[in-house]
Amino acid sequence: MSRTARICLVVLAVSIGTLQADVGNAQTAGNGCALEAVAGTGRQVLRCEEGLTVTAEGGARFNLIDRNNDGRVDGVALRNKAVLVDVDGSRIGTGFQVVTPQAVAAVRGTQWAVDVKGGVTAVLVVRGRVAVRRSAGGSNVFLGPGEGVDVSSGSEPLVVRRWPAPRAAALLARLGQ
pLDDT per residue over 36-51, tens digit each? Predict the structure, then answer.
């Protein structure tokens, strides 16, 4: 396992409880989740029994969140790089959020990518719908499949755009898609 993967495991351990048995490349994390390093890529995949999969780009800095303290992961605090979140809405009833310094992206069941770099959060929806707002508050914008929004810390209105195929493909490729 790479040094980066070990560091992320420590961050995850602090966030969601004590890591348990090492099974090959997989780690069992608290809250019914298993973390697996994707060989040769630097990516990690967290799979939770309640219908949640989070794929983190190599070197991504994030913590898992349990907003309502029920022992289940219901959010990610992402500080840099990208994650791909796949939420089975029929199994996660409280919604799921990705919180960044610039934005909050929330859903009940969908697949979307969030990328943080250079003071901007980019959100792209693969399937389903996602509500996005600035972390500082304000109105939501709603994204559908193929749509994205770039959120900076400013106050200008958020503009939903259909992402050009090369931009969407480049982000998703970083996440193994």
Answer: 999 999 999 999 877 8
C-alpha span between 97 and 100 (Å, rounded): 10
Delineate the domains of the chain, giving CATH numbers in brackets: 3-174 (2.60.120.1440)
Sequence-separated (6 or more) residues with CB below 8 Å from residue 35:
9, 12, 26, 27, 28, 29, 44, 45, 46
pTM of the model as a whole:
0.81
Buried/exposed code over 139-176 (b: 16+ C-beta within 10 A; e: otherwise): eebebeeebbbebeeeeeebeeeebeeeebeebeebbe
pLDDT in tens, 71-98: 888 899 999 999 999 998 776 666 889 9
**25/141 Cα distance (integer angstroms):** 39
What the block records as the tokens of 22 is 């090492």
What residue has token string 């792209």?
124
Say how far apart CA 135 and CA 140 lie, in whole Å. Answer: 11
Contact, 85 vs 114, CB < 8 A? Answer: yes
Phi-psi category of residue 8: left, alpha or beta, with phi > 0 → left and psi -120 to 50 → alpha: alpha
